Amino acid sequence: xxxxxxxxLMIMVGAxxxxxxxxxxxxxxxxxxxxxxxxWEREAWQEHMARREYRREFWRQQRELSERRAYEAGQRxxxxxxxxxxxxx
Length: 89
Fold this sequence. Notes:
By secondary structure, the chain is mainly alpha-helical. The protein has a domain at about 40-89. The protein is about 70% helix and about 0% strand. The chain has helices at about 1-20, 40-80. The protein starts with a helix and ends in a 9-residue tail after the last helix. Keywords: Signal.
């Protein structure tokens, strides 16, 4: 008898929980698509990406310049020490 009551209780809980999982008739985990961004949001995002691209290009050029300076300094040091550049450390 105890198991029958417990089983019936579990069936009722399952039946009551099933509709809650399908929230508002959309189905579980469904959300309607977001509205498209407004014009000012789109413009702000484009400006953000432009600034980001500018920064990336600036630091890429800085990195190339510093690599070139280091390479030239290594060449000078090798020449001063009278060694070929590939053998100088």
